[in-house]
């Protein structure tokens, strides 16, 4: 979620471990340091996100730039129309290719079509009954899965049983030609990195964000989704849940049954809201060698709630559901701010409620406390973006609260990596996180140093 705010620069440093100084990082200004593809700040951020997939084969720069040039700021239907048009065009190219003769061409086009269908769906969740939410997702999966079958080593697709939901996952093995790191595998058993997305991202996104980099290092790469996330929200009809370990633990159970997984080197990563979900799972799931929180987040509720005026906050705190919902909906009708509208749309959809009060309440139950962090038994890579406006200060707080279990890394603006989750600087993200993981796997005693 993208809430813009104007905060002052903090330069005070606090000692956390013998080897780390964790800055009190706050946002320097209310204007992105990255060139914007739209005068609508929310559209610009989402366009930047999908443009960044080009780093991992999930988009093409010219195709994204063309769509961006046609989208009308503030017009969510315009965003849908342009990406639906682009997706259809690239899908037609993909299906016209002779896959036997030209599997690479077909695969790459199917991957881009899948991404563009995801983009077309992005701003439609204000009407949960809109049939396009399902039909577009069918196209997302159709093209992505077609592309996966055209890989030299197609991933294994599995649907695990959760308590009241299905857990879809992809298990990717590294290509035989990959240059494995020195720590990669004891025989056939390889380090395995399980990565989850967040509030609005799909597991297919993570293949382009980190997956190809993980595979290039000779490690297994696994993605999954839980309640509230795109496929599970649609197919199991359930929103986000506070006991996220009930999603991750069945996946870890399944991984431990495989003879190609080194069970002592399973790491869990989380991107965006996943930077809260992954540590949340690790408070109960203790068979992990490491956690990647990209970016570190303690409480999305807190970051969201503080955006409301004090008078509205008081209504919520007093338990006045009727008045709180009424005033939020009135403000929603009056605002033209895309970020605010989408924030509410996506919040209600992903938590499966029609009440802003219930959305806030459900989200508040997912907060991570000091006591919970004390239960994490593995090292945690806590990422922060110098220009990340979503939960400012929370990565730094998380690192301090974790103490010597934390390894803190600030992605900086001056090299184009300071956006939320280092969007657009995926090579830098992979270098920082995966090199740290390699050291963790090789030398457990240096995991937080």
Question: What do these coordinates show?
Answer:
This is Alpha/Beta hydrolase protein. InterPro entries: AB_hydrolase_fold, FrsA_esterase, Xaa-Pro-like_dom. Keywords: Hydrolase, Signal. Residues 1-18 form the signal peptide. With 449 residues, this protein is α/β, with parallel strands linked by helices. It has three domains: 14-30 and 155-299 and 366-446, Alpha/Beta hydrolase fold, catalytic domain (Rossmann fold, 3-Layer(aba) Sandwich), CATH 3.40.50.1820; 57-151, acylaminoacyl peptidase (de novo design (two linked rop proteins), Up-down Bundle); 303-361, no CATH class. It contains 17 helices and ten strands. It has an eight-stranded mixed sheet, sandwiched between helices. A two-stranded antiparallel sheet has the order 1-2. Strand 5, helix 6 (203-216) and strand 6 (220-224) form a beta-alpha-beta unit. It is globular and about 60 Å long.
């Amino acid at each position: 979620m993208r809430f813009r705010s104007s905060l002052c620069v903090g330069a005070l440093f606090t000692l956390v471990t013998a080897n780390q100084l964790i800055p009190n990082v706050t946002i320097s200004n209310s204007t992105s340091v990255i060139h914007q593809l739209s005068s609508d700040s929310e559209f610009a951020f989402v366009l930047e996100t999908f443009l960044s997939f080009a780093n991992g084969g999930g988009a093409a720069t010219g195709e994204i730039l063309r769509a961006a040039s046609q989208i009308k700021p503030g017009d969510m239907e315009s965003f849908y129309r342009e990406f639906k048009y682009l997706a259809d065009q690239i899908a037609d190219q993909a299906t016209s290719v002779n896959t036997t003769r030209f599997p690479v061409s077909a695969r790459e086009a199917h991957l881009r079509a899948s991404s563009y269908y995801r983009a077309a769906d992005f701003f439609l969740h204000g009407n949960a009954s809109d049939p396009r939410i399902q039909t577009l997702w069918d196209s997302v999966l159709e093209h992505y899965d077609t592309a996966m079958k055209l890989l030299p080593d197609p991933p294994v697709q599995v649907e695990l049983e959760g308590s009241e939901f299905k857990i879809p996952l992809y298990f990717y093995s590294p290509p035989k030609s990959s240059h494995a790191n020195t720590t990669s595998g004891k025989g056939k058993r390889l380090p395995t990195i399980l990565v989850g997305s967040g509030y609005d991202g799909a597991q297919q996104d993570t293949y382009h964000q980190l997956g190809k980099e993980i595979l290039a290092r000779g490690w297994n790469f696994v993605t999954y989704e839980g309640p509230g996330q795109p496929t599970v929200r649609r197919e199991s009809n359930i929103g986000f849940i506070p006991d996220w370990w009930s999603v991750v633990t069945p996946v870890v159970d399944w991984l431990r049954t495989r003879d190609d997984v080194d069970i002592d080197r399973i790491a869990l990563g989380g991107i965006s809201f996943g930077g809260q979900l992954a540590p949340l799972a690790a408070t109960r799931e203790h068979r992990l060698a490491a956690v990647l929180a990209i970016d570190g987040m303690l409480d999305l509720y807190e970051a969201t709630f503080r955006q409301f005026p004090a008078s509205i906050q008081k209504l919520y705190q007093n338990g006045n559901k009727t008045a709180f919902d009424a005033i939020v909906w009135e403000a929603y009708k009056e605002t033209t701010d895309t970020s605010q509208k989408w924030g509410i749309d996506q919040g209600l959809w992903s938590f499966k409620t029609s009440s802003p009060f219930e959305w806030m309440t459900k989200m508040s139950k997912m907060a991570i406390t000091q006591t919970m962090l004390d239960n994490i038994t593995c090292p945690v890579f806590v990422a922060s973006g110098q220009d990340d406006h979503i939960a400012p200060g929370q990565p730094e707080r998380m690192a301090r609260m974790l103490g010597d279990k934390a390894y803190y890394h600030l992605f900086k603006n001056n090299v184009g990596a300071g956006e939320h989750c280092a969007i657009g600087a995926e090579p830098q993200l992979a270098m920082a996180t995966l090199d740290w993981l390699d050291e963790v796997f090789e030398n457990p005693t240096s995991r937080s140093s």
